Amino acid sequence: MRGSRRLLILLSIFIAGVSASADAPGREEWVNKVTEDYAGVSAGVEINKRCSILSRAESEVLERDLGAFTKALRGKINPEFLSMIRETSGTMVAEDPYDSCGGEARQAVADARELVDWWLVELKATEQ
Predict the structure, then answer these.
(1) Which domain holds residue 119?
(2) Angle value at C-alpha 52, between 71 and 32, nearest 5 degrees
(3) Could you read off the pLDDT tens digit of each residue along the chain, which spans 128 residues?
(4) Which of 5, 27, 33, 63 might form a disulfide with 22, Cβ 3.0–4.6 angstroms?
């Protein structure tokens, strides 16, 4: 979990700029949370691509779910910003502690699966 937190802290520095676009009360907190979690999911996908932690079928589901998460954020978060998050995640996972594909990498992928599942349910519920 320490490695996952490290990645999220580094990504949150990058993400901090998004709060300037949050205009409604409570929106800033929501935007910060969703983009931080989006970064975690994106990193999990990239770690899995690099380390082959999940089975092929599970990998396809995780990647499909990241696509659905991205689509669900359309109109809520600037798509160029989401693209920058994905690019940054890809670069960061090539560094310690994820490059060794050990326990911290496995935990980051597990965390990504939980996060994307939660957000897909949450975003679907708020659309109805």
Answers:
(1) 2-15+26-127
(2) 35
(3) 455 555 555 555 555 544 444 456 588 899 999 999 999 999 999 999 999 999 999 999 999 999 999 999 988 999 999 999 998 888 888 888 888 999 999 999 999 999 999 999 999 888 76
(4) 27
Q: Is residue 83 part of a domain?
A: yes
The Cα–Cα gap between 128 and 118 comes to 16
Residue 10 lies in a domain: yes
Domains contained in the chain, number: 1
Distance CA 64, CA 103 (A): 24
DSSP track, 40-104: HHHHHHHHHHHH--S-HHHHHHHHHHHHHHHHHTTTTS-HHHHHHHHHHHHHHTTSTTTTTTSHH
Contact 65, 100 (CB under 8 A): no
In a domain, residue 103? The reply is yes
Q: What is the pTM of this model?
A: 0.80
